[in-house]
Amino acid sequence: MPEAAAGTFHRGERTAQQHAGVLEKMAARGSVAIRTYMPDQHREFFAQLPFIVVGSIDGERQPWASVLVGEPGFINSPDPEHLQIRAHALTADPLNQTLAPQATLGLLGIEPHTRRRNRMNGKVETISGDVFTLKVDQSFGNCPKYIQARRPELIDAADRVQPKAQRNDQLDAAMQGMIGKADTFFIATAFLGADDASARQHGVDVSHRGGKPGFVRIDDARTLTVPDFVGNFFFNTIGNLIEHPRAGLLFIDYASGDLLYLAVDAELIWDGPEVAAFQGAQRLLRFRVRQAVRVEASLPLRWGEAELSPALAGMGSW
User: Would you say domain 11-312 falls under CATH 2.30.110.10?
Assistant: First the structure.
């Protein structure tokens, strides 16, 4: 079985780790926690999911967060170094344009009702019809922190309606309504350079963010502010933003299936009175909207009531 490459973290991740005082600790931990193959437990986990979150990047260097859906088994792993996904991108999903041979993708497999999640970052090797195959670059697990427990169910094809897409360069009332009640969103980021110290090249990552409903503050029609809580100290998202301060955000309306895709510029606020005022925040993320796409009734999943993560009990609210 291949071993994880030495020097797992790229320079942006190392910068964030140094800022948090965990650089030496993570240098030892990274090569153990992050693999260049998927353990059997991860391979089996991906195969039982009805959806997966995907991070990609377009020709203008803009990351996007997307979602693919299918009957459990639509994802399979023929061997520890590959995943195959059989699915069509949803209406107006950026993945319709960004999925291509040799494209780098970040995958987040998440099972909200059990609070399990695993990540896989890799490169598209082949595309044939509605099936594409990815070669693993990084494979690692994530802790259950900040995941709201809700169970997804696929809806019958007869109950689906034709999705409608609305595009804007700022957040309209409907978009702000989705964001204002959200307790979860997904964020895609990218590392675009090369790093001789870690042997890391261009790559994309997608991650989960959870909080109490309303934890994403709407400052105005183009600006959002989000607390960033303590995590696993990998700093994949933060490290990418240090190097390339753009992100793709995905919000889901769990009752209607509406999806909101945002392309944003990102600013890291490391400390100061705003950070200190939000209980539990380690830093803040400020997003400025470049593009917004809301697609009504797009996601063919419906979800049960959410049970908020117990890890949020000590966290504040705006």
Answer: yes
